[in-house]
Amino acid sequence: MKLPTYLRNNIQDYAEKRLTTMTISSSTGNDQLEIWYYGDLFKVPNEEQQYIVNTDFAPGKIIAKDPMTNEEILIFDAAKHGYDNMFCETYTEEQINNRPLQKLAIPASLIVLELGYSIDYEDEKDNYEIDENSFVTLIDDSKMLWNDVLCNGFDYLAISYINAEGKQIQFVDCELA
Q: For residues 86 and 62, what is the distance between their CA atoms, to the nearest angstrom?
């Protein structure tokens, strides 16, 4: 089962379809969550919801928040999740630490996360700096276990919510490789 290691305790309804698909819940099992984000909103023609994108200053960040308990669940941090952010893109401390969150103007909803895993890491394993304990050095010089790289190094991300009529409405769409 391939899913981000940082979300393992917050996953429901996992399925491997064309994309790896799951819903998010809080530690109490609540799946009606608010979305808080750092980023800009971008209007996509013919879409009813604006999309969250990176700003010119810093990478985006998306958190689901349980309105009952205020528990915050990090869904995606464009400074550290996904292939490009693990191996290609670097950010300053100011960019990473100065990202105030705001609430997305949608009601608490079921959140759907879709991930693409099309990089053949095993085929490209020789391209990575892996130590004797199976830790890989990332672009920011932090270390991550090889098996965690396989789960956190996704190359596509989409985030949607299910509205009151049961329609899935996307608000994040990112190519990450």
A: 17
Does residue 134 sit in helix, strand or coil? Answer: coil
Total Cβ atoms within 10 A of residue 149: 21
Per-residue pLDDT at 156 exceeds 90: yes
- Classify strands 156-162 and 72-77 as parallel, antiparallel or unpaired: unpaired
> Strands (DSSP E) along 5-101, which ranges?
11-16, 20-24, 34-38, 40-42, 51-53, 61-65, 72-77
Cα separation, 59 vs 61, in Å, equals 7
pLDDT at 31: 98
Residues facing residue 157 across a β-bridge: 115, 174
Is the overall model pTM greater than 0.70, yes or no? Answer: yes
